[in-house]
């Protein structure tokens, strides 16, 4: 759904003039240090190799049907039954359970219910306001229902067939090897905590469509091998650039195994896939429109608040969720440039995603196609 997805696509791929101006305005007015490109040059050194023992620690295991969060919520406009049908199939194939949080049409919102305006940005009637409201409803749902942690997804994403292994491993890394939180020598301190992903985060990002790193704190990251990680060459440009130019991962590091980086969250873009803790949901609602005002689309607000240290957590690069594109007006529910395209595309079967090792969308046909009569040809009774 996401304005944000669309926005990033505009920025990165299509480059619609209006959105570039909008995006740069929002970014420059917030980040004094400049645009994304700047963050990729830094001289911060990280200390040497870790010294640690992993005795008495369970091995990583696949995550459960809610990917080791209490629930999985997904946001979809009520009329996008095409996307909802697809997600039902994908969830069934992956063995995961998710709950629909309906997307919000901004024309259904009363002006009195809107957050107060920040920086003179009038968002009344804008798709970005509806998008914010849908995410705010997801946070509110968590708060009202005592949900300790939830993964929040949008409806136009792709993931890997081994998504449970990917999340199980990340969960293990965050709980048993969180060198950002404890330092390299003290990761044991996290072992006795109850929360699957550790107990210290507001937000976890694994569905960003671009990312700004904190170039002053490049020490706050670690690299780990993930057999289900995608090849560097298959990644979206921004993600490949972050891996190679910021984290210095090269194809030499791989030797058959794939690498992922966990870093302290700083500037993720897009809200296609992220998790929040209950406290994180409260902090988001408080800081972003539910108590304080709103001056930009929800992903930028989250980015700014994280940049300012009001929200914190961990980001996975390359991300586990990437956008699935059909090429046509079905690709957005809120971007006028995409919506005015008369071409509805040729359907889900011909869509594409990048940066997923074994796409679950492409895998659907392998599981569901059959031909009874061909299979019976040699079975003469
Ligand atoms: C990556 O390599 C550059 C050049 O050697 C170095 O300055 C930088 O600190 C390295 N980045 C990290 C995260 O280690
Ligand atoms: C999966 O694990 C999480 C975290 O332990 C838990 O809250 C959730 O209830 C589990 N999901 C299911 C379906 O059992
Ligand atoms: C904001 O925009 C809406 C719709 O364009 C308009 O009706 C409203 O008067 C504007 N509000 C302010 C405070 O400018
Ligand atoms: C734990 O993190 C360190 C970096 O802080 C990394 O070098 C090491 O490979 C990780 N351990 C495992 C088992 O992944
Ligand atoms: C990757 O390999 C290169 C060259 O061997 C090395 O300089 C770099 O530190 C390695 N990076 C990581 C993240 O292991």
UniProtKB/TrEMBL annotation:
Signal peptide: none annotated. It comes from the Eukaryota. Residues 326-360 are annotated as: Disordered. Keywords: Membrane, Transmembrane, Transmembrane helix. This is Glycosyl transferase family 25 domain-containing protein. The chain crosses the membrane at residues 12-31. Pfam families: Glyco_transf_25 (PF01755). Residues 339-350 have a biased composition (Low complexity). Residues 70-299 form the Glycosyl transferase family domain. The keyword Transmembrane applies.
